[in-house]
Amino acid sequence: MVKVGVLALQGGVEEHLSLLESLPEVEASPVKKQSELTKLDGLIIPGGESTTIGRLIEIFGLKEKLIELGKAGLPIWGTCAGMILLAKEILGSGKNHLGLMNITVKRNGYGNQLASFRTEVEVPAVAEESLPLVFIRAPYVTEVGSEVKVLARIDENIVAVEEKNFLATSFHPELTTDSNFHQYFINKVNAR
């Protein structure tokens, strides 16, 4: 049984928990405290509002622990806002949040809430069939470091990346009924 937490400060927490609980051999739990972080085999940072989640991470005293655990190899997956939180660089901003992944992201890359969309894309590393992807005020990656593997693009925009123990997606797999990305993350957790 692997223990996967979902950072439960703001955003799509319940949807991630629900999809995780549908997978065999996974125990999912919401995480708000430092003490809960140390009991995990993997962590998901959900979509939401990246600036708000970034502030709450600091208010709840989680920032340093998240950076420490990430650098020590804890598998961490950031979806949408979570991708922004993991990025070393945010275009147009002089600071980052956790700075764990060697990627540069563009916030609201596809525009505002009205520019949200749904599409299907092939992500060969994750599944054999096309996957439904939901984008809501989504960021995308504009630059990647040498160790970053690009998993998916839409047009020329990078929307899914992996680097060591980190996974980041621009979209919200938790807002579909498809569990392929969650299973991919669990496989990453199990491989550790």
Automatic annotation (TrEMBL):
Pfam families: SNO. Belongs to the glutaminase PdxT/SNO family. This is Pyridoxal 5'-phosphate synthase subunit PdxT. InterPro entries: Class_I_gatase-like (IPR029062), PdxT/SNO (IPR002161), PdxT/SNO_CS (IPR021196). Catalyzes the hydrolysis of glutamine to glutamate and ammonia as part of the biosynthesis of pyridoxal 5'-phosphate. The resulting ammonia molecule is channeled to the active site of PdxS. Its EC number is 4.3.3.6, 3.5.1.2. L-glutamine binds at residues 48-50, 107, 136-137. It comes from the Bacteria. One of its GO terms (molecular function) is pyridoxal 5'-phosphate synthase (glutamine hydrolysing) activity. It catalyses: aldehydo-D-ribose 5-phosphate + D-glyceraldehyde 3-phosphate + L-glutamine = pyridoxal 5'-phosphate + L-glutamate + phosphate + 3 H2O + H(+); L-glutamine + H2O = L-glutamate + NH4(+). The keyword Hydrolase applies. PROSITE patterns: GATASE_TYPE_1 (PS51273), PDXT_SNO_1 (PS01236), PDXT_SNO_2 (PS51130). In the presence of PdxS, forms a dodecamer of heterodimers. Only shows activity in the heterodimer. GO terms for biological process: L-glutamine catabolic process; pyridoxal phosphate biosynthetic process; pyridoxine metabolic process. SUPFAM superfamilies: Class I glutamine amidotransferase-like (SSF52317). The lineage of its organism: Bacteria, Bacillati, Bacillota, Clostridia, Halanaerobiales. The keyword Transcription does not apply. Keywords: Glutamine amidotransferase, Hydrolase, Lyase, Pyridoxal phosphate. Pathway: Cofactor biosynthesis; pyridoxal 5'-phosphate biosynthesis. One of its GO terms (cellular component) is glutaminase complex.
